[in-house]
Design brief:
Blueprint lengths: L1 H8 L5 H5 L25 H10 L15 H20 L17 H27 L4
């Protein structure tokens, strides 16, 4: 982690691991001090903020700093409204509703009930009629 941060800032190897952390955001003293040997560049304030934002750690107080643009918010709202309208218009088409009483729970059960009715309706007609009248035993 520190090696990547040193490379991003242009610091020498081990500069961050020796100095430790002093600021609340976790940036080190090496970022604010000048090395008299002249081999290292002193990063600007913008560079330090960019590095702190990119290499966040447990002590970083920077979070949730991404604010979407107004255009992105408008696109999201319009998409949600389109989806709500589309869902409101959607209606499942039900086949064979003109048959009268619905005695099935799905298409496979409807086909099965038709087969059963074809073979056994002549035997169960009296039972169904009395059941519908409410006089079934």
């Amino acid at each position: 982690y520190n090696k990547q941060k040193e490379q991003a800032l242009g610091l020498g190897a081990g500069a961050l691991s020796k100095s430790g952390s002093s600021t609340p955001s976790g940036s080190s003293n090496a970022l604010t001090t000048f090395n008299p040997s002249g081999s290292q560049m002193v990063p600007t304030t913008e560079q330090r903020m960019a590095v702190d934002a990119f290499y966040r750690d447990a002590n970083t107080l920077l979070y949730g700093d991404n604010k979407p643009s107004e255009e992105a918010i408008d696109r999201l709202v319009s998409k949600i409204n389109r989806d709500v309208d589309k869902k409101a218009k959607f209606s499942r088409k039900r086949h064979n509703e003109d048959e009268g009483d619905i005695t099935y729970i799905n298409e496979r059960n409807r086909v099965f009930n038709k087969k059963i009715a074809r073979y056994y309706d002549k035997y169960t007609a009296e039972i169904r009629a009395s059941f519908e009248r409410g006089t079934a035993l």
